């Protein structure tokens, strides 16, 4: 049964709708700040939506690249054509698939044969006797395998003999200027095909009306796919003659930003260039590698020419996106940006929060707003609420009391609500004026004829008590007691009003029973709370003034006169 009840309760919650409660503030400053922030957000949203095309579905580009170099150079008493200064295997060995290499400088070691010869002199290979040379020893930096002999390298040095391709290549600096410095005028044709699988769209960087005699220029021919190598280095802010000496790595970046919508179609490449390697490194600067060309002599022995090639590796990097209108993207963007407008309210709330935390100055408008907005929920045993007839608000006083409740310092809990009005009974101005005159006269007589009135009493009708929490008057300052007013009699003490309140709660209540005074007294307390505090929510934490409590008890006394509390016993 318990599980069934819980399940039913949860099921009922599914059909409940909760709506937040808002506070409407009439403030020109707050409204101006709110609409200014709204305007900024609206401009940002429109700019992002239109310029960044947030209404489109995006897809990364899929690309393939092919290159074709052209150019001939004359250097070292020979002609260098495309087959010699481009090394296809170099492009296939590097980590970048779309690359090509152009040799710009070279060191040649010709007529090498396999045999024995002195090793190139370095710290580990220089020797004075055969004890320094270990037969069969191989070093990763050596050119061959040691034979164990120490032989003369030149007139001044001896080095360990090795079995290798002899003579060994000398470790000399690359030639300056570069051997193939004229490769600056070589050209390369880059053919780039891209595809967007999601949109089933393919395009290439070579247009149908392509002019094969064009040369790329960022201003005059920005879409030409033929590039002069010297221009590429210049666009990368490098000097070709300097880079050609030791080589380097240059990136050719092709960016595609395609708008595939029919009403605003655009899809063309944008080229940029930059250097990838660090030219400031002192060790192993530039880009170089070795390769050899072999041939056989008439006697059948194999001979080779060893080349140490320096050059520029060009990496073609293709990236970009394609976009096409999709309604779901538009609605998603609009839905996400709606939350931005909450920033305005958050900013204003933060200002009020900072004001609430500061103590430098107090603004009445902000004080009222904060009291309306924030409600502190405290346990009944921690606080008491009192309402004075000469103050327009309810006062919150925290326990424990160190002095009389009448003198205790408190804080404003909320603005005093609209007074309770009994629609059954109305009085004429004459009756009210008459009653008021009698009340004022009665108060003047009471104030002068009550020598036992306690000091904390301001109305002249409170009873003497030693307990701090019972020392409460209906007023803060001297004046007429609320119990002498017409409305106190009609709303709190009237038997007709109280009977109707009891019957409203229990239509079958016996109004002639022996315990009816207790019922009338309790409902009189409730009537007073509703009248002076505006709500029954504070009923368990309100303190009824001594004069009002005494008047209600005298009107509807308890048998034996034994009252158990000071609030609503």
TrEMBL record:
Any idea which UniProt keywords this protein has?
ADP-ribosylation, Cell membrane, Disulfide bond, Glycoprotein, Ion channel, Ion transport, Ligand-gated ion channel, Lipoprotein, Membrane, Palmitate, Phosphoprotein, Receptor, Transmembrane, Transmembrane helix, Transport
Q: Which reaction does it catalyse?
A: Na(+)(in) = Na(+)(out); K(+)(in) = K(+)(out); Ca(2+)(in) = Ca(2+)(out)
Q: Name one GO cellular component term.
A: postsynapse
Q: Where are the transmembrane segments?
A: 25-50
Which InterPro entries does the record cross-reference, listed alphabetically?
Answer: P2RX7_C, P2X7_purinoceptor, P2X_extracellular_dom_sf, P2X_purnocptor, P2X_receptor
Q: Which Gene3D superfamilies match?
A: atp-gated p2x4 ion channel, atp-gated p2x4 ion channel domain
Q: Where in the cell is it found?
A: Cell membrane; Membrane
The primary location reported for this protein is membrane
Annotated GO molecular function terms are:
ATP binding; extracellularly ATP-gated monoatomic cation channel activity; purinergic nucleotide receptor activity
Any one GO BP annotation for this protein: positive regulation of interleukin-1 beta production
Stretches assigned to the P2X purinoreceptor 7 intracellular domain = 385-567
Q: How does it sit in the bilayer?
A: Multi-pass membrane protein
Q: Which domain of life is it from?
A: Eukaryota
Q: State the Pfam families in the record.
A: P2RX7_C, P2X_receptor
Question: Which family does the UniProt entry place this protein in?
Answer: Belongs to the P2X receptor family.
State the protein's purpose.
Receptor for ATP that acts as a ligand-gated ion channel.
Name by which UniProt lists this protein? P2X purinoceptor
Please name the source species. Anseranas semipalmata
Cite the source lineage: Eukaryota, Metazoa, Chordata, Craniata, Vertebrata
């Amino acid at each position: 049964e318990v599980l069934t009840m819980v399940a039913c309760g949860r099921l009922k919650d599914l059909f409940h709708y909760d709506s937040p409660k808002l506070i409407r503030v009439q403030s020109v400053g707050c409204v101006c700040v709110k609409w200014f922030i709204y305007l900024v957000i609206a401009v940002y949203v429109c700019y992002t939506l239109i310029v960044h095309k947030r209404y489109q579905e995006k897809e990364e580009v899929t690309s393939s690249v092919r290159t074709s170099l052209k150019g001939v150079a004359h250097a070292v008493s020979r002609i260098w054509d495309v087959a010699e200064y481009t090394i296809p295997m170099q492009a296939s060995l590097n980590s970048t698939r779309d690359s090509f290499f152009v040799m710009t400088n070279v060191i040649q070691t010709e007529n090498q044969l396999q045999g024995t010869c002195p090793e190139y002199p370095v710290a580990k290979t220089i020797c004075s006797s055969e004890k320094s040379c270990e037969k069969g020893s191989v070093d990763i930096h050596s050119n061959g395998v040691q034979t164990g002999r120490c032989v003369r390298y030149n007139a001044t040095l001896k080095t360990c003999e090795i079995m290798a391709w002899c003579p060994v290549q000398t470790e000399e600096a690359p030639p300056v200027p570069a051997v193939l410095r004229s490769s600056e005028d070589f050209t390369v044709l880059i053919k780039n095909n891209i595809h967007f699988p999601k949109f089933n769209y393919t395009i290439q960087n070579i247009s149908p009306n392509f002019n094969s005699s064009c040369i790329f220029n960022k201003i005059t021919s920005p879409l030409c796919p033929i590039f002069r190598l010297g221009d590429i280095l210049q666009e990368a802010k490098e000097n070709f003659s300097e880079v050609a000496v030791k080589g380097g790595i240059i990136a050719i970046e092709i960016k595609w930003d395609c708008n595939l919508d029919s009403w605003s179609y655009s899809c063309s490449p944008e080229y940029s260039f930059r250097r990838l390697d660090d030219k400031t490194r002192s060790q192993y600067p530039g880009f170089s590698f070795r390769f050899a060309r072999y041939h056989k002599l008439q006697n059948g022995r194999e001979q080779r020419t060893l080349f140490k090639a320096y050059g520029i590796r060009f990496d073609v990097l293709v990236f970009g996106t394609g976009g096409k209108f999709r309604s779901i993207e538009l609605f998603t963007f609009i839905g996400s940006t709606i939350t931005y407008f909450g920033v305005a309210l958050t900013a204003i709330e933060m200002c009020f929060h900072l004001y609430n935390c500061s103590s430098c100055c107090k603004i009445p408008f902000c004080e009222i707003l904060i009291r309306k907005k924030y409600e502190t929920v405290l346990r009944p045993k921690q606080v008491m609420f009192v309402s004075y007839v000469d103050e327009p608000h309810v006062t919150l006083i925290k326990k424990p009391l160190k002095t009389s409740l009448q003198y205790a310092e408190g804080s404003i809990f909320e603005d005093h609500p609209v007074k309770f009005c009994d629609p059954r009974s109305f009085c004429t101005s004459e009756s009210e004026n008459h009653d008021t005159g009698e009340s004022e006269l009665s108060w003047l007589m009471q104030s002068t004829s009550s020598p036992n009135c306690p000091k904390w009493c301001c109305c002249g009708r409170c009873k003497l008590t030693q307990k701090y929490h019972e020392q409460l008057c209906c007023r803060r300052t001297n004046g007429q007691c609320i119990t002498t007013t017409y409305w106190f009699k009609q709303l709190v003490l009237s038997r007709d009003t109280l009977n109707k309140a009891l019957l409203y709660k229990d239509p079958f209540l016996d109004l002639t029973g022996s315990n009816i005074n207790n019922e009338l007294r309790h409902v009189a307390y409730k009537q007073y709370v509703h009248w002076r505090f505006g709500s029954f929510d504070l009923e368990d934490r309100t303190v009824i003034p001594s004069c009002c409590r005494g008047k209600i008890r005298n009107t509807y006394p308890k048998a034996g006169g034994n009252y158990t509390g000071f609030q609503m016993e």
